[in-house]
Structure formats: structure tokens, C-alpha cells
Amino acid sequence: MVSTQVKAVENTGRQYLPQQSGETETRSPNQELLPLSARANEKDRLEIGGCDVATLVEQFGSPLYILDEATLRAACRQYVDSLSRYYPGESQVLYASKAWSAVAICAIAAQEGLGIDVVSGGELYTALEAGVKPEKIYLHGNNKSREELEQAVACGCTIVVDNWLELQMVGEIAEKAAEAIRIMVRFTPGIECHTHEYIRTGHLDSKFGFDPEGMDDVFRWVKEHPRLSLIGLHAHIGSQIFERQPHRDLGGVMVQWLGKAASYGLQIEQLNVGGGLGIRYTEADDPPSIEEWVKGVSEAIADECKAQQVNLPKLLCEPGRSLIGPACITAYRIGSRKAIPGIRTYIAVDGGMSDNPRPITYQSSYRAVLANRMSASVAETVTIAGKHCESGDIVIHDAELPETNSGDILVVMATGAYNYSMASNYNRVPRPATVLVAEGAANIIIARETYEDLIRHDRLPERLVNRG
Ligand code: LLP
């Protein structure tokens, strides 16, 4: 039934929700963690992008990812504007689509002038379907297949080469290609930062990129292969980083490598410093702003270029989380409650680790609000549990919430990055729909999966058919 509703919306294009009248501005205590357009309306219900969240859930079902277009666009603009303000050379922001690869999201990023960083044939396909120009697409990955490399060459995007096997494969493909293939080389800069060990990549013991010790050989090899055009160097030190210094250090280190490449007669025009800026998931998180981050990186690169007397490269960065993370919330319906006296009260929601695997994977913390009674006071500390058959399927440990009832709508904030993109069908739970909201309009941009979707790739060999 839910999927029928979704289809109807897809066919009719923009779907307008009733506008609220007599609105009063009530700021929620969690305003900082909510998308920019969030407010409590006169019904004391959460509204995002001018759409009442409870009404969206009635219309599109739950769980529901609700993506605020204004917040996403504002973050894109902050990166673009800050670069043009603080970096004296040319620049290009890429959206790291691993954070959430979807046709509509890539299309919005492209409208804002961003290019796209992709890490697989699937993400590349998605970006192309969104109409992103291949010259603004960069293919990453530590184990790209020959097919993926050929797909990239065929469409004309830039390949960020990660290792020797790939360099050789690209070299072979280049022999037969009509024109020289644009590549960048990724290396591990040897910069440590404090973040979860699974999402740290800049230290030397990382599966990504060339070890710096091997870079001289890479430069020599590339110099001997003129069918490969080395346009840039790439490094990424990790994700959800709050410290300011590591990215500044990275800028300096990368410029030094530019000088090294020049000593082999390679004029490198672009430096890509990766992504990694952290966001606020809880009130305890204190990341720098996008502007501060861009300023720090820009100054580090410009200063080092001056010191080394090298030309300013075109500066690329590829944020994911800080673009899309704060723009989305996940709305769930509250279901069962289990109170264990003196121990804990569990409140279960109708999703969990299948739509947000980050708490179980990285022990990530989130915060939630009750979307249908925004001004209700905190009454208890509860554990928000998912619906999956796994004790670790906890969305939030120790959430402070008002009194809740089954049927209430719980909104978990800042779920735009690495939630949908890492979602699964564990327990054969269909992935939720995503609705894009802006100025009172709501569009489904990813339809809710159906049970038919779940068994689409199942096959039943003839000898297993049960005929009663
Ligand atoms: N560039 C490269 C080469 C990357 O590997 C990444 C993230 C980014 C850019 C974007 O980083 P961001 O701006 O989003 O921090 N699943 C984990 C995060 C994995 C990050 C992977 N690489 C999570 O949920 O926290």
C-alpha cells in the first residue's frame, strides 16, 4: 500500500502538502542538530522544508528519510563560496557520493557547481544518470576492476590511481585509447588524526594509496608513459575529523610532493585534499565550520606554495558527510516498550540497523526528538531499539525523551551521511523511501522497497518447487 502511494507521487511530480497557517516560531532545543529549515509549527509538530513531518509519515510511511534541500544546497554553497574567498587559485568541490549516492542528490550537487567523487562502477553510473559531466567526475577505489577502469575511460572521467596493479592496467588501456587518459595518484601522506580507526586513512598503515616511499618510482613510471596524463595528486586522511591541524598539515605535505614531481619533469596542476570534515551528531560534537575548514586548508596550501616557490595548483576537495549529513533526518514510528525495573526501558522503532548501521558499526551516537509533540518536556531516559533480531540493534543508548506512546513519531537527526548508503535488507526489511522537501513541496527521490524488490534476484530451481 505504501509503495502504491509512492508511485502516485513519482508520476505526478511535485506533491504539495497543506501549508500550515497561523505559524508560530518555536525553536526546539535540538535546533542545532536539525536541518536549517526545521521549526515547530502551530500544532507543536516538527516541520522541515515547510512540510509537517507527521503528515509526511502518514503519506509516505515509515521509516522515512526526509532530506532538506535547503540545508544540502547551503552546505554546497558554503564550500564553493569559501574556496573562492580564501583560495587565491582555481578550485573545484566534489561531492563524495559514497556518503549517499542517489541520482537526485548528485543532480543537486551538480546544479550547485560541484563535481562528483565516485568509488565504484555503480556510483559512476549514478552520477552519469544524474547528468553530471564526466570531466567533473573522479573515480577512486583501492581495487578497481578492469571493467570499472574501462567504463571510466569510455566516459572520459578522471581516474584516481591507487596502486601499481591499477597503474599498469590503466597503462594498458591507455595504449588503445583514442587520447591520453587523465589520472591522479593517491598516496598516504603519513598524517594521523583522531577518529574511529575504521574511518582513518591518512596514516601509513592504510589499504589506500601508494606508500610515500614508492612515489619516486611512480613518478618515473608515469614519465615514461606519455599516454597517461598525470594531472594531480590525491590524499584523504579520514572522516568525521574535528581537529583543525591535520588538514592544514596535509595541504603543506601535498605541496611538497608537487615540487618532487616537478623534479621528474611532471607539471602537476591539481591537488585533491580529500574530505573528512566532521559534523554534529550530538551537542558534545564541536566541528569547525565549513568556512573555517576551507580557510585553514587554503592558507596552508597557498603559504607552502609561496615558501617552495611553486605555482598554485587547482585545489580540489571532496566532502561527503559535511554536505549531506546534517540535511537529513529519519522519521520512525514508535512501537513496543519494555521496562525492566531498575535496569532500563527499551522503546522500539520500526527500523534500526538496516536503515542506520552506524551505531552498531562505529558505536556512533545520535539524538532524537518527538516530532508530534515538540515542546513536551523530557520525562525519562530510554534506550531506542531497532526491530532487528540482534541485541546490538540499538539506535540510541540513553535518549532523553518526553513520555512516548506507541504510534508517536520519533525523529533521529543528522542521518544523511552513510545511512542510506550503508543500509541493508537485514531480516528482509525493505529499505525506506527518501523524500526531498523544499518550500512546502515533497518529492519522493528514492522509492520505498517492496517485498517484490526483496526477492527480485532470488531464483527457485525447478527441483525445489513445492507443488503441495
Ligand atoms: N574522499 C575519500 C577518498 C574518502 O575515502 C572519503 C570517505 C571521502 C572523500 C569523504 O569523507 P567525508 O567528507 O564524508 O568524511 N562509513 C563511515 C565513513 C567512511 C568514510 C569513507 N571515506 C561512517 O559512516 O562514518
What can you tell me about this protein's structure?
- It is a single chain.
- The protein is of the alpha/beta class.
- It folds into two domains: 153 residues, Beta Barrel (Lyase, Ornithine Decarboxylase, Chain A, domain 1); 179 residues, Alanine racemase (TIM Barrel, Alpha-Beta Barrel).
- It is built from 13 helices and 21 strands.
- The strands form three sheets. Strands 1, 5, 14, 15, 16, 17, 18, 19, 20 and 21 form a ten-stranded mixed sheet that branches. An eight-stranded parallel barrel has the order 6-7-8-9-10-11-12-13, surrounded by six helices. Strands 2-3-4 form a three-stranded antiparallel sheet.
- Strand 2 and strand 3 form a beta hairpin.
- Helix 6 packs across helix 7 and helix 9 runs parallel beside helix 10.
- The protein starts with a helix and ends in a 13-residue tail after the last helix.
- The chain binds ligand LLP.
- The site of ligand LLP has 24 residues, from helix 11 and helix 12.
Topology (SSEs and partners):
Blueprint: H1 2-12, E1 15-16, E2 39-40, E3 46-48, E4 51-52, H2 53-60, E5 64-68, H3 69-86, E6 91-96, H4 103-111, E7 115-118, H5 121-129, E8 137-139, H6 146-155, E9 158-161, H7 164-176, E10 181-186, H8 215-223, E11 228-234, H9 245-263, E12 270-272, H10 290-308, E13 314-317, H11 321-324, E14 328-340, E15 344-349, H12 358-362, E16 368-370, E17 380-385, E18 394-401, E19 409-413, E20 433-438, E21 441-446, H13 451-455
Parallel strand pairs: 5-20, 6-7, 6-13, 7-8, 8-9, 9-10, 10-11, 11-12, 12-13, 15-17
Antiparallel strand pairs: 1-21, 2-3, 3-4, 5-14, 14-15, 14-19, 16-19, 17-18, 20-21
Helix pairs in contact: 3-10, 6-7, 9-10
The protein binds ligand LLP.
